């Protein structure tokens, strides 16, 4: 596939700009309604916090037909006095271009990385195009640790509703923390800062024709940075409010994508995670404060019903790779009242590690295997909801921390069984 840099209109833009200290990338697909707000926040943040640095915004678009790229080109902050800023501002450039290759966020990021390399950018950030809660301060918080403190990777830290982000809370965060030993709270957050040298390193990896380019880029970036000993931190950005996801979207497909990518990375970095024990905090930037959050509705009866149906239909298949005592425990939950419904952390960790081992040993077709995790995941979320109905955000966070510690303690058994 031709490099984005080889296309004439991109070459012309790069020759005109020549070099840029900072590059901010926004991947998009039909986000005309929200991307203008993101562009204004980016331009304001760059003017306010990095006025002496030459900056470029790159919109890498997946073929929008709603005028997204035109919105990017036509959006600008012209009146800097309105944001209480009166100093001279260095030039700000924009490139809006369709990306080529496999449809997906990873292909959009590849375009951003390539333009960053061509312009010799020292610091970069990528931001979701449907953000409603972004402020100019996000730009400072994602970029400044790279420029002033020599960090290579800045992960986002958000406050989220206690029932939001449950794939992250129950699987991705505890698993990646136990594997690689870094407490990066939002490893698939979507908004990141990184150094030019890390962008170069990302481009050197042969993943751009794989599932990473489709849907695994966030967890791949985080894991690649940590596993290769780049200097990582996180910045508190407040609340993340964005366009609601399609409620009809297939949850099993989402689990397959996110958990499948995490398991694939376990194969890539086996020799790294086998040597890691326990976990440690990473530096955190930003002033943490309480934020108002949109409520998240849950239908507990429906969740337990889907879990029970999965137990009846899939137990025989799970028995080929999940220990029998856990299968018996799951089957016995059918007799519980809703208020008693509970999946202990120890059981849950054994389930996730059993799925990881089954994927490693290719016990079943990977997609069938991971989609069969769906009813178990729904059951774990139902258990989480019943246990935390009266709990504050801080109490919930402490329970998630205890789940992480259980993943860390049981990791020895995973290593022993990983042939």
Descriptive report:
The chain is of the alpha/beta class and 419 residues long. It folds into two domains: 282 residues, Spore Coat Polysaccharide Biosynthesis Protein SpsA, Chain A (Alpha-Beta Complex); 88 residues. 51% of the residues lie in helices and 11% in strands. It has 17 helices and eight strands. An eight-stranded mixed beta sheet has the order 3-2-1-4-6-5-7-8, with helices on both faces. Strand 1, helix 2 and strand 2 form a beta-alpha-beta unit.
**Could you give the order of strands across the largest sheet?**
3-2-1-4-6-5-7-8
CATH topology of the largest domain: Spore Coat Polysaccharide Biosynthesis Protein SpsA, Chain A
User: Number of DSSP strands?
Assistant: 8
Residue ranges: pLDDT <50 for 5 or more in a row?
Answer: none
Mean pLDDT: 91
Shape: globular
Structural class, judged by helices and strands? alpha/beta
Q: Roughly how much helix do the residues carry, as a percent range?
A: 40-55%
Q: Largest sheet, if any? A: 8 strands, mixed
Number of domains: 2
CATH-derived architecture of the largest domain: Alpha-Beta Complex
**Mind telling me the CATH superfamily name of the largest domain?**
Spore Coat Polysaccharide Biosynthesis Protein SpsA, Chain A
Measured distance between first and last alpha carbons: 37 Å
Rg, alpha carbons: 22 Å
Sequence of secondary-structure elements: HEHEHEHEHEHEHHEHHEHHHHHHH
């Amino acid at each position: 596939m031709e490099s984005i840099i080889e296309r004439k209109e991109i070459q012309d833009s790069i020759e005109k700009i020549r070099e840029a200290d900072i590059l901010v990338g926004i991947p998009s697909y039909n986000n005309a309604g929200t991307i203008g707000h993101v562009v204004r926040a980016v331009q304001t943040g760059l003017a306010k916090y990095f006025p002496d640095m030459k900056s470029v915004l790159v919109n890498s678009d997946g073929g929008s037909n709603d005028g997204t790229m035109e919105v990017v080109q036509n959006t600008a902050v012209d009146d800097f006095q309105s944001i209480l800023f009166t100093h001279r501002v260095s030039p700000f450039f924009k490139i809006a271009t369709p990306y080529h290759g496999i449809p997906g966020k990873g292909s959009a990021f590849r375009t951003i990385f390539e333009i960053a390399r061509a312009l010799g950018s020292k610091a970069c950030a990528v931001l979701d195009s449907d953000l409603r809660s972004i402020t100019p301060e996000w730009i400072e918080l994602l970029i400044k640790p790279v420029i002033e403190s020599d960090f290579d990777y800045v992960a986002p830290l958000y406050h989220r509703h206690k029932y939001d982000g449950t794939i992250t809370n129950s699987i991705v965060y505890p698993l990646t923390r136990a594997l690689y030993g870094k407490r990066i709270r939002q490893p698939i957050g979507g908004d990141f800062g990184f150094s030019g040298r890390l962008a170069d390193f990302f481009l050197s990896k042969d993943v751009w024709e794989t599932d990473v380019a489709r849907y695994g880029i966030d967890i791949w970036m985080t894991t690649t940075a940590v596993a290769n000993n780049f200097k990582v931190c996180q910045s508190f950005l407040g609340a993340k409010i964005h366009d609601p996801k399609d409620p009809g979207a297939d949850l099993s497909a989402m689990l397959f994508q996110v958990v499948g990518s995490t398991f694939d990375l376990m194969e890539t970095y086996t020799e790294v995670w086998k040597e890691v024990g326990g976990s440690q905090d990473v530096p955190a930037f930003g002033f943490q404060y309480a934020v108002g959050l949109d409520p998240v509705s849950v239908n507990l009866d429906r969740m337990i019903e889907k879990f029970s149906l999965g137990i009846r239909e899939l137990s025989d298949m799970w028995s080929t790779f999940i220990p029998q005592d856990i299968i018996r425990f799951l089957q016995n939950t059918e007799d519980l009242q809703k208020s008693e419904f509970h999946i202990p952390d120890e059981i849950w960790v054994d389930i996730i590690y059993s799925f990881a081992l089954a994927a490693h040993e290719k016990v079943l077709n990977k997609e069938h295997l991971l989609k069969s995790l769906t009813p178990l995941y729904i059951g774990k979320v139902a258990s989480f909801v019943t246990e935390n109905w009266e709990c504050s955000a801080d109490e919930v966070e402490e329970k998630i921390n205890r789940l992480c510690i259980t993943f860390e303690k049981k990791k020895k058994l995973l290593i022993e069984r990983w042939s």
